[in-house]
Structure formats: C-alpha cells, structure tokens
Amino acid sequence: MRTLMFSALLCLSISLSWSATVPVEENTEAAAEEATYNNTAAVVGNEEEFTPVLTAEDGTEDEQLQQSRFLYCPPGWFKSGSRCFMYVSSPMNWINAEKFCVNQQAALASVQSPQEYHFLQGLAQVAGRSTAWIGGFYFQGSWMWIDRAGFYYTNWLTQNSVSSFQCIHMSSSSGWSNGNCASALSFICAMDPNSC
Prior knowledge:
The chain is of the alpha+beta class. The chain contains 5 helices and 10 strands.
C-alpha cells in the first residue's frame, strides 16, 4: 500500500513539474516562426533531465512530444525501447512474482524482440543470476504473455511438457524454457512508463 501511494505521489509530482516547466505560448505568427525547437527541463529526484520540445508550425506542442515527454523510468527501473524493466533478485514462484509486479503497477516481462531479450539477459547477468521468470505462460492450448502482448517472438532453448511446466523462465546465457510455476526464481517486471 505504501509503495502504491508513493508511486501515485511520484506520478502526480512529475506531472505537476512538467506542467509548470512548459511555457504556454500565444498562438501568433511570430511565436510560430520563432519556436520550432526548444529545450525544457524536468527535475526528477535530484537530477535534471532535458527533453527536446518539438512545436508545430502554429506554436503548439507536437503530439510526438506529448507521447515522449513521460518516457522516464522510476528509480530502480531500467529503460529499454518504450518500456521500463526491473530485475528482482528475491526468489518467488511465478504467481507471487506476478503479484509483486502488479503491486508495482507492472507485470512480469513479455519479450517482443531479440534486442529486448538480450537486454533482459544483461539485467540477469549484472545481478549474477542465470535464470529469471518472465511473463509467458501456457493456457488453453496456447503460449501467452501475462501483459496481453502478442506472443509473436519466441526464443525457445527447450520446451518441456506443458502439463507440468506452464510458466516461462529465461536464461542469462541462452533462450528460454518452460518450468514448474511453483519453483522459486528471481524475476523481471516490465511497465509502460505512461501507465502512471
């Protein structure tokens, strides 16, 4: 509960700091000609983060900027592509690992590309671990991701019987395998930075 309250307050304070740092420009021709590329700063913790602000010809902010402005990761999370990832070393079974991630406003990590899988392997290697739960599971004849992403990219090292091994764990040095969901492993959570 304390973590959820902290996350909500963090999101609110960052949103307020952004609204305070972005100047409102009048919709005049002079402003449109003058401001096509600015830099604004947002203070996150004790660090200052600079984000380019793109403006349209009429002086209003570009839609792309509005989407990219909030692409930050909370402390303890690492950004790759458009998502944030957190490696959790405390071993848990797959269900409890997912519950932990949900309490962080995240889910066990889905994997959408070889580059993303390589990034997750790097997180496990830095933590000194060889395996970690990710968000894949077998349900009603199909492999799925717990975050509802499409299961299009696969990287199977071994595929065991799905009757006993219905949850996916990754390897820090090779592909993934399915294992017993009751096994206690470290795990990786993933979140969309725009979720708060």
